[in-house]
Write the structure tokens for this entry.
Amino acid sequence: MNAPDDRPLAARLHHIALGSPDPGALAAFHERVMGLKLRRTDRGILGETAERHIYFLPGGRKTLAFAGFAVDNESGLASLKARLERASWPHDVRENGTELFGPGVISLDDPDGNRLLFGLARASEQPLDAGLAGRLQHVVVASRNAARLSAFFQSLLGFKLSDNVVDASASLTTAFLRCSEEHHSFAVFQASSDHFDHHCYEVGDWGLIRDWGDHFAKHHVKVEWGPGRHGPGNNLFLFIHDLDGNWLEISAEMEIVGPDRPVGEWPHEQRTLNSWGTAPLRT
């Protein structure tokens, strides 16, 4: 049995913060197209539904300011804190919490400088509309050293590796990692620079992919990629660009993974990313 501070992390992606040269305009796009209710906070503009929480902050175009993972319980948060302390990895603890997380939020930067928050989700002070179904589900980055970042998420943060994608020389091109029973909550692509790739909403079933497609058409938002089916995760998908050009994915029927599932390995080819057709290969 694992020691208390070696247990796998049990958490879900709860919120992200997008940087933008014009956060007000980007927030207005997500209000109109993604159904978010906007409010001003000390940190910046926050857009919410019952399933989606997104900050819009001043910053560079197409940047991820931070990602917040809601840990299942206090024991899990304490286990993560013990991991970081044992490894002497720099981190801060926000005793008063944030607007979305309760006291004891752990804040840290990964080896690429991506800011990560881990905390216990606060109950909403006021009921939020559900809107069109779509729970914030995973976030993806690109890295000049995907293997190092994957190892960090596993060894220090307690994520589990679901699948690797490798090229003809057996070098890692993509790693899919999970912190719940879903196939991935985080992924990293090997690339020539460290940057934000995309974030995703899980809608639950294929029929809602259709409904989102109709919704985007109503708002004159072009579907940029899909519908299709990913190999790793086996989920159905479509992608759009928001006002800043951020990739935004709508997903359905993500693979549910058991604790003893072996790590899969996929070839670096278009069919891996889309078994139905073409795909943008990041490297």
The first strand starts at residue 11 and ends at 20. The chain has a mean pLDDT of 95.
